[in-house]
C-alpha cells in the first residue's frame, strides 16, 4: 500500500472542498412573481421590468445592479427571473427589488414600497406587489399659504450645485396647485408629490426608464437627486432656488 504525503493529502482535500462549495463569482438568480390588487387586465403589449438596486445612500439615486424585462408581461401573477453577478454584491450595502409595468412607454403600475432583500440568501420566490399609478393620488394637504403661490408653474433647470446645465440637455419641473409635480429629467419623464406641511419635501418620485447618452443621463440623475434632497426653497429675482442644508442644489428659471 502506498501512502501519500500529508501535504499532498491536504491539498487534495482542499481541492475537493473547493469543488463542492458554490462559487459566488458565478451568476445567481432571484425568482418570484409580480402582481397587483386592482381588477384590471393588462394590455397585450405591456411589459414588466424588475430591478435589483443598491439603496444604501438615502440622498442619491439607487444604483441598478441587475435588470430583467418580461415582454409581453401577460396577466398576473407574472413570473420573473433576475440574473445577477454575485461579485457585485457588498455585505456593507442594502439592496431592494423594484418593479414597474409599462405599455408603449406609459407607466401603468409600480412598486411604491421598498422590498428589501439579501440577494445572496434569497431562497424562496419573492412576491412583488405593484399599485396603479392612477390609483395613488397625492395625499390631502392643508391650504397652501399665499407665500407659496409663486411655486406653481413651469420651471426650466439652469444650474445644479452652482454649475450650468449641459448644452442641449433640457430638464424641467412643473409644480401644480394640487401639489403634484412632473417634468423631464433630460432623458425621462417623471412625476411625484410635493409636501409643504412641515418643509419642502418631494416624494414618491417615479419616471420612465429609457437609456440616453451622456451628458443627458448624468444631468438627469443629478437633477433627480437634487429634487429628493431639497428641504427648502426661495424665489430670488424670479428664479426658483431649491435648497438642502442651506445650500442651493438647483436653480430654475420660469419656462418661457
Automatic annotation (TrEMBL):
Protein name (Swiss-Prot/TrEMBL): Putative lipoprotein
Chain ranges of the DUF306 domain: 151-251
Annotated keywords: Lipoprotein, Signal
Signal peptide, first to last residue: 1-25
InterPro entries tied to this protein: DUF306_Meta_HslJ (IPR005184), HslJ-like_sf (IPR038670), Lipoprotein_YbaY-like (IPR053196), Pilotin (IPR039366)
Gene3D superfamilies: 2.40.128.270
Record Pfam families: META, YscW
